[in-house]
Amino acid sequence: MTDAAELRRRTAELLAAHPPAGTDRLDFLKARFDAGLAWVHYPEGLGGLGAPRSLQAVVDAELEAAGAPDNDPRRIGIGLGMAAPTILQYGTEEQKRRFLRPLWTGEEVWCQLFSEPGAGSDLAALGTRAVRESGGDWVVDGQKVWTSSAHVARWAILIARTDPDVPKHRGITYFVCDMTDPGVEVRPLRQITGEAEFNEVFLTGVRIPDAHRLGEVGDGWRVAQTTLNNERVAIGGMRLPREGGMIGPAARTWRERPELRTHDLHQRLLKLWVEAEVSRLTAERLRQQLVAGQPGPEGAGMKLAFARLNQEISGLEVELLGEEGLLYDDWTMRRPEHVDFTGRGAGYRYLRSKGNSIEGGTTEVLLNIVAERVLGLPTEPRTDKDVAWKDLAR
What we know:
Elements: H1 4-17, H2 25-34, H3 56-65, H4 77-90, H5 93-105, E1 110-113, E2 129-132, E3 138-144, E4 155-161, E5 172-178, E6 184-189, E7 198-208, E8 213-214, H6 220-236, H7 247-256, H8 263-289, H9 298-321, H10 346-352, H11 363-374
């Protein structure tokens, strides 16, 4: 049984063999993965040691103290938080060994081809088609939208309709798509911030080998639930210090700019500070629950809280700054590799947080999930549940 002492010993061996100060960053990350210290709860040979998930903090603390490089998790968050756990659960051994190491080291960036223009909140109604040819390959045609990091991604997790003659949830298959293949076109979607971190992706005759299918044919909806549950935890359950995230800049402005204070703003800031701390501690409890298994629908509640708090806190910060809050630092069209909420000004935080209630599942859909799967309330009537996808009104 791997315990904390054993992990410290292994970490010390890694640091002795690959001193961070004199080792190339990528070489160090590869060595860390091969030593099983990337994500310790993964199996041996796949970056882990089969240890309890809670012991990852032991390794991270030792490496941080030694000045070791990390894998820039914000840049590769979709791979780490969504693709990796799905590949681990449903991938073949060959797929796990091919994809997990370069995913974790950041050599290969991942994106998520789920949402579509005609099936946003109703993801199961997606219309991107994958048709299997006699040789076994699949040919994919369709359009995806709101695809973060598609402009820098090598791989994508993709769900497509493989059987239009059955109800919408049962005719979907899950694939890994090579973003460099012919027929994949990525176009930027410029947002209200001026940036284009999102994209729309057009798939025209894209060939995907059957070896890049995850799970059984027609079982893509079940596989996708693993991705979506992990996505919500990754977004809403991230580890933060006290006053981490949006509440930090607002509290700092309050302390440093006494001339901006009013009684009303003070009361609102206190309320949001408490809610942010409650959310942070709840996220910590949720991560501890993951030690016992895969994330469940509770992650939807965390993602709901994340979106609401970000929007309320950023709105308060803009009000607190008064006329300064109306300024915006830079409308330059950029295609960033990740979102930087705390590295920009209050105006950016206010504008960018509007997307929090859409990305990772809309607030309306997540409220349904919490109501039905967490609280056990009656489900909404769904008249299309047993209707073949081809017969649905569109």
